[in-house]
Amino acid sequence: MTGGEGSDEAAVRSRVAQARTMVVKVGSSSLTDPHGHLDLGRLRSLVGALASAALDGARLVLVTSGAIAAGFGTLGFDQRPGDVATQQATASVGQGLLMAQYETAFARYGLSVGQILITARDTTHAVQYRNARRTLCRLLDLGVTPIVNENDALASNEIRFGDNDHLSALIANIVSADALVLLTDVDALYTEPPSRPGARRIGFVPDVAAIMDQVDAQGSVSGLGTGGMSTKLEAARIAAASGMPVVLTRADLAGPALAGDRVGTLFAPIRPRGSSHRLWIKFASRPRGGYLVDQGAVKALRGGRASLLAAGARSVQGEFSAGDPVWIHDESGHQVAKGLSGYDSEEAQDMLGLNTKELRRRLGAHYAHPLVHRDSLVLV
């Protein structure tokens, strides 16, 4: 798992170097000093690296933390506040300060930026997801660098992402990015926190899913941020499973990382890119219920390109409307797939176990269709 100089790593590095659209995520600890104040030198250095890539033709989206960290020093707090209301108020103050510095720094290179504040709900609902995609893609088409942050001033603990690592992977899917770069305060992924004796640096990860259980990612959480190495691994897993390479490294190595140089840890894609619609279903949608299905249906679904038919469904779980995301469980309760239901839960109750001919005869032609169509279904 440590990689090396193999052709696989070289090929993936080349993909990063040639990426046209890239999402870059930077954490609070990479933008602030030890006291929590915004470090303008660090911010300007980061912007310099991003501007160089943008001026070479790359389309960049920056997912940034730092609003709360930037705000609490200004408000006179000695450390990041712990209660939600004060965090929200601090983020409201800090976000303006953060954006003002980004605007000034990018303007030195003749580049414009646009602010996008987002919450988890904006990605879990299909309409808001499409709106976010439309806005972000239009900004990129206009030559503007979108600067994205979780809307900490409004997000509660119940609806927030909890870290911008996860958000950056979802944003990468939204804009169909060619690569994701995660910038943090450590130079690479290690087998355990690098402060521990015996920790080994990992330069190349061919399969992030296989390595997640082999790495001790606990204990590497910044005092200024909400994410640690475990959240970065999860972000890398989402991106790699979406068909894009990921680079994890220190913020001061942003320039070499964007250029595809051998810095940090490189995660290879583990499958071809899917459609934006299917990636949303898989990673961003939040099911409101689901179907329990028999073994025949499970076999058909796992065989690939099969819809969920009413004949294979045994029960309806929860309440949902047509078009809502739902889970598909086997008879042991294990999750098999996720998809968009073609019917309300009440309608689906009357369809259970019926084949297409029976559905048409008993309920009418409107019901002679799959519970979940294969084009709106992904295996988990």
UniProtKB/TrEMBL annotation:
One of its GO terms (cellular component) is cytosol. PROSITE patterns: GLUTAMATE_5_KINASE, PUA. SUPFAM superfamilies: Carbamate kinase-like (SSF53633), PUA domain-like (SSF88697). Residues 290-368 form the PUA domain. InterPro entries: AceGlu_kinase-like_sf, Asp/Glu/Uridylate_kinase, G5K_ProB, Glu/AcGlu_kinase, Glu_5kinase, Glu_5kinase/COase_Synthase, Glutamate_5-kinase_CS, PUA. Coiled coil: none annotated. It holds the Pfam family AA_kinase. One of its GO terms (biological process) is L-proline biosynthetic process. It is an enzyme of class 2 (transferase). It is found in: Cytoplasm. It catalyses: L-glutamate + ATP = L-glutamyl 5-phosphate + ADP. Belongs to the glutamate 5-kinase family. Catalyzes the transfer of a phosphate group to glutamate to form L-glutamate 5-phosphate. This is Glutamate 5-kinase. It comes from Bifidobacterium mellis.
